[in-house]
Amino acid sequence: MAMMVNQVGYEAMACRKKAVVNRPGSYVLKNAAGAILWQGQTGVAVSDPLCGETLYPLDFGSVHTPGKYYLESFDGDKSDTFTIDRDVLEGVHNAMIKALYFQRCGCALEEKYAGPYIHAACHTEDSEVYGEPGHMIKAQGGWHDAGDYGRYITPAAVTIGHLLYAYWLNTMAFKEQLSIPESGNGMPDVLNECRYELEWMLKMQREDGGVYHKLTAWSHADFVMPEEDKDTFYAYSISSLATADFCACMALAARVYRGSSASGMGEKEFSLRLESAARRAWKWLTENPEPLLFTNPEGSNTGEYGDGADADERLWAAAEMMTLAAWLQEDAREYVEELRRILDTGLAVTDFGWTDVAGFAAMAVLTDFGAAKAAGEETVQRFRTAVLAEADRLAALGERNAFGMAMGAEDFCWGSNMVVTNRGILLALACRVLEMGGREADRPQTETHQTGIVQPSDETAGMLPGDSETARRIARYEEVMQAQVDYLLGKNITGYSFVTGFGEHAYRHPHLRTTAADGIDDPMAGWVSGGPNGKPGDELAIKMIPAGTPPMKCYLDREECYSLNEMTIYWNSSAVFVTGYLRQKAWEKEKEQA
Ligand code: 9MR
Ligand code: ZN
């Protein structure tokens, strides 16, 4: 790839418009009619450790005129076309949420919402509790996790965590309707879609509060449509990983849905169900303090989501129970004690993936005034320090490669695109911490959450706090965040946009059973690929990618390559958080300048 751009495009008002090219010299930016809008020279050469090439940055941040453009080199090479416009991420952001609708299990997908991607109701039978023949449970519903038809609690909880925080902190980025069956019912569609998953999760809880780790068949289905997959589904054993994640997720959802009850669609009742499920899971956790981890039974090949420690899951649960208690003005002492006990073990609190959810505990304590107050200044300070230190580390990482992105060579793992976007989430949280100027513990509970619309208060709208050092730091973090999104949307060595349907060269062959079996050429739009993987894990990728290939180049747009090119619900939700943040930020800036 010679000229790498964000193929979707760049926010008109912002100054962060960058491309990367492989030859130094003079370049122009042309519009569709061929008129030159900008002319400039490449910047300093960078020997890039991620793709192993020498590359040059191009900065056309001074162009603010909306339009469709391409870059042209001194000798006539053209880049992919892209847009410069206000709210340029709107389409891809909404498509990445809507994609989840296509994963709905247990119901038919109708043409009205699914267009050509219809299918009959799938996986409608009851499931058997594994190891207890004849013990059936009704756990229909939820989203298929990924290219397979399994449904797993820990990735589900993380997906809901990304989406509910994205919505809660950046509500204005979630105002469009997505054409799903519930659209127009008065609830934001992101909450409607999440509810579909939450209703399934509720069914995965056992009487005693424990939660089954996953609901899958023994082996992955062939590449058939979901309604043709007639395998028996099993609820596999209770794990403390699933129960703690479930607890956190239900407590968070109880708070969010209760705070969004403007529509009168029964959110209050729903919130009460979520709350009681969270409490029962918490009780199970206190009665079962030892880790109860999960491994697949010998010979079963469906997803494992194995995880060697449950401390981070328990930390997240404690943090969300604190926010819930604060919200309901109850005593949070028990949760605070558990939170501090785990924090004292020194675990990192900056990640948002299915293996390590401790970042969500930081998110809870640093964004919820009541929880911050309950936690106490010293504990809040520990989270704040950890988040800002990690943000500084990531920003420094961004200065060491040609893409300006917070990735090291070793970060290109299975699902590397979530590492990319989860780092965007951490940076977004750091910006928020800086904006609040460390005053969240002193602030009163705002009215705003009670209507569910988190309008920035006058105090913080479009704001940069007084001192310019803080403003510079925020700008630096946001610059890296933008680089993460640019990478995802095409500014990378593969030349692909990693979101289906978005960009002139979007990848087209996700490892996704419905797409493989539906006979339709194009996949549905809005799926984030797992992305380059320096340690390819599937047969074709191992065969095709020579050892020693630089990690960013370890990618193939091939359906067979599940270790490079699958899609999942949680890779999408993580990306949605970042696009949501950038959209809301742009909107706030616009308001400020109006
Ligand atoms: O996303 C998971 C990735 O981090 C792991 O390295 C990989 C191997 O254990 O599993 C991935 O999760 C898969 C899950 O087990 C089953 N559904 C598809 C998921 C995406 O590939
Ligand atoms: Zn299904």
Helix coverage percent: 25-40%
Over the alpha carbons, how many angstroms does the gyration radius reach? 23 Å
Oligomer: single chain
* Sheet with the most strands: spatial strand order: 2-9-8-4-5
Distance between the termini: 40 Å
- How many β-strands, per DSSP? 14
Q: Can you give the mean pLDDT?
A: 94
Strand content: 5-15%
Q: What does this entry look like structurally?
A:
This protein has 18 helices and 14 strands. The protein is α+β, with helices and mostly antiparallel strands and 594 residues long. The structure holds ligand 9MR and zinc ion. Residues 145-146, 148, 150, 303-305, 414-415, 562, 566, 568 line the site of ligand 9MR.
SSE diagram, text form:
Blueprint: E1 3-4, E2 9-11, E3 18-21, E4 26-31, E5 36-41, E6 46-47, E7 54-59, E8 67-73, E9 82-85, H1 90-98, H2 111-114, E10 127-129, E11 136-137, E12 151-152, H3 153-169, H4 189-203, E13 214-216, E14 234-235, H5 240-258, H6 267-287, H7 311-327, H8 333-343, H9 358-367, H10 369-375, H11 377-397, H12 416-436, H13 448-451, H14 468-488, H15 513-517, H16 539-544, H17 562-565, H18 569-593
Parallel strand pairs: 2-9, 10-14
Antiparallel strand pairs: 1-3, 3-7, 4-5, 4-8, 6-7, 8-9, 10-11, 12-13, 13-14
Helix pairs in contact: 1-18, 3-4, 3-5, 3-18, 5-6, 5-7, 6-7, 7-8, 7-9, 7-10, 9-10, 9-11, 9-12, 11-12, 12-14, 12-18, 14-18
The chain binds ligand 9MR and zinc ion.
